[in-house]
Amino acid sequence: MSGQSIIIPYHRDREMIKFAVNCIVKTVSSDVEIVIVGNNYLSEELAVDFPYSNVKYYTIEENLFYPRAINFGVEHSSGEIITFVDPDVFVKYGWYEPLIEAISHSDIGAVGCKLINPSTGRIIDFGISHTRVNAVHPLMGERPSFHLASESRRVRSICSAVLTTRRSLFEELNGMDINLPYTYTDIDYCFRLGGIGKSTMACANSIAYHKGSSDPENSKSYSFKYLNADSKAMFYSKWGEQIPVDLGKWFRISFSYFRDMNNDFARRVFLLDLSTVYDRSYYYELLREQGIEFLESHVVPVKTRDIDHLTLHKMVDFDIIETAVPILYFVDSFLELFDNSLWFDHRDITRDYVVDRNGCVHMLSDISNRAC
């Protein structure tokens, strides 16, 4: 079997899917088969016309959920090379060819692209790393042109909002696991590929916008977020102690680059923890492995994961603003510290720096100046 197929699972938002498909049609050859799996018990959501000769549109008046929709699409497609694209992904010119080139290497089992937040223009996904209790996203929040995002790299898993694989591998693994109906389906697939000796790659030259979690009302989140807890529980029940805890590898890469850019950064610091992570001790050990010593530490309770903004002068005691020791701010996302004018103005932030749970590391002065 030869040829190429693109599989799109579609549930709701007719205008969105029409725009998304149009973006794809304009950027791939007309001999690439596009299979759209419309699935919704509300038939009016499926009333969409796709006037393209290479598009096959199947309508099923039932909520299949993501893995069953993907499996259905593969069963009704003909290509050996198959690419999954979410209905809230808007591809850019040049997105497709790098994926096809990468999957041509026999040791590669899956390839994903660099996914960009359509509002901020920053990375939301470029490979996934793992702690014992969470999947984390190296480079999340960085600009697409950031140095460490400029090269493709092998990763444990990738987001299947855009994922290219081979039919022969997909069938060998019996497709997507239908017991993971909302999240972790893609990670599970990549882990199973690893089990048969195939690597996963994040492709730097393939770029697409993805609404994803940046829009709480996108079709998947709006309709099925209630399944998130069950999906995560099923995934961790399935993989348990087999999960490859590999975030430390990314911390070493990230700190190596940070060290090259700031070779006199402070190793003896006041640790100010404004994160929401449960496994703090794991992260603290990763920081110590980089030669960092905590002279003192303080945890500020934050109850919302990836909160939009951390207002330092409201959340942190004023006596800390005057401490002479360089501060290491540990947060969920470095983006949360933008717009802290009072803190930036009244504290000497020259040697302060920020580390987030995804392994992004920046001088606080660069955040203050929006230089990152």
Characterization of the model:
The protein is an alpha/beta fold. It has two domains: 4-242, Spore Coat Polysaccharide Biosynthesis Protein SpsA, Chain A; 248-368, Rossmann fold, CATH 3.40.50. 29% of the residues lie in helices and 24% in strands. The protein is built from 13 helices and 17 strands. The relative contact order is 0.12.
Keywords:
single chain; alpha/beta; Spore Coat Polysaccharide Biosynthesis Protein SpsA, Chain A; Rossmann fold; 2 domains; five-stranded mixed β-sheet; 13 helices; 24% strand
Give a concise summary.
With 372 residues, the protein is α/β, with parallel strands linked by helices. It is built from 13 helices and 17 strands. Helix content is 29%, strand content 24%.
Strand runs, count:
17
- The fraction of residues in strands falls at 15-25%
- Give the name of the CATH architecture of the largest domain: Alpha-Beta Complex
Order of helices and strands: EHEEHEEHEEEEEEHHEHHHEHEHHEHEEH
What is the molecular shape? elongated
Secondary structure tally, helices: 13
Assembly of the depicted chains: single chain
From the 3D structure, determine the CATH topology of the largest domain.
Spore Coat Polysaccharide Biosynthesis Protein SpsA, Chain A
CATH superfamily of the largest domain: Spore Coat Polysaccharide Biosynthesis Protein SpsA, Chain A
On the 0-100 scale, what is the average pLDDT? 95
The largest pleated sheet is described as: 10 strands, mixed
**Separation of the first and last Cα atoms:** 46 Å
Uncertain runs: none
- Alpha-carbon Rg, integer: 22 Å
